[in-house]
Design brief:
This protein is of the alpha+beta class and about 280 residues long. It is built from eight helices and ten strands. The termini are far apart.
Length: about 280
């Protein structure tokens, strides 16, 4: 137990000082480490494309071990149980790295789900019995949401049936993941009018039409184009560039960038994207 708490950190420090492959060794150790069987993290990974807000889901399919017949099939969020000696944020980052291939992306904890009936559905009981018999029936999961540029996501080769779904057209979901997604979306909607986090969902260079479409997709409303552009013109941290879109099937529009430095220097006491 002492090694699980302290020794793992000293070992990583040793590897770092000796310039060894920290990531590969870390994952090798994690694979052999013990799971905390009643604590997990679930990540709601949001992306933006085709003028809509999307969430990344993975197909879950259970087959009869004798006949090979599919018992059920649905989709789940990206998640995993926490390892001993691993904090929650690092566990969520591990899941995101495995599922998207990306690092240093926007990640925030938004809620903890601890209802005793989270795994009470028949199909979830079957899944646990056949695939994870050592795990407990009452699992507390900590929800995180992440914002990514969906065009940069690297396919997860270990889970090839991972795909993007519009948040308003979700497939059948496992566990209580419908509730987790709904909670994450509410949290995101409250946050985007207070902090300029929507830019995490856009490419570095974007047109104002893309920005407006993104706000509309997240907030679930239609915005007046003229008023929206007046508001943007007051945001000194949205900087116009002397170039236009490339490779688009319509008349290329001027592109802009978001400057975090300018925002930090010019922001007021409160950021508020009023509607």
């Amino acid at each position: 137990m002492l090694f699980g708490i302290f020794g793992f950190g000293f070992l990583l420090l040793f590897l770092n000082k000796n310039k060894l492959d920290l990531q590969s060794v870390t994952y090798t150790l994690m694979e052999k480490a013990a799971l905390i069987n009643n604590i997990s993290v679930d990540c709601v990974i949001f992306g933006f494309g085709n003028n809509g807000l999307k969430v990344l889901l993975t197909r879950r399919e259970l087959e009869d071990p004798k006949s090979g017949e599919v018992i059920f099939s649905d989709y789940t969020l990206q998640g995993h149980h926490v390892f001993e000696g691993e904090n929650l944020y690092n566990a969520a980052n591990r899941v995101l790295k495995e599922k998207t291939g990306l690092e240093n992306i926007y990640l925030e904890q938004f809620f903890t789900f601890g209802d005793v009936d989270r795994l009470s559905k028949e199909k979830d009981q079957l899944w646990s019995m056949f695939r994870f018999p050592d795990l407990m029936n009452h699992v507390v999961t900590v929800g995180y949401y992440a914002l990514v540029d969906s065009s940069k996501v690297i396919p997860d080769l270990q889970h090839p049936e991972t795909e993007w779904f519009p948040v308003d057209k979700l497939p059948e979901l496992g566990f209580d993941h419908d509730r987790i997604i709904a909670k994450a979306l509410d949290f995101l909607r409250n946050k985007v009018v207070r902090e300029p986090i929507v830019f995490e969902l856009l490419p570095e260079k974007f047109a104002l039409s893309q920005l407006q479409n993104l706000y509309e997709a997240v907030l679930g409303i239609k915005l007046d184009k003229r008023n929206f552009r007046k508001k943007v013109a007051q945001m000194k941290y949205i900087i116009p560039l002397d170039e236009k879109q490339k490779g688009v099937p319509h008349k290329p529009a001027q592109v802009y960038i978001f400057s975090r430095d300018v925002y930090e220097r010019t922001k007021r006491a409160k950021y508020w994207f009023s509607i």
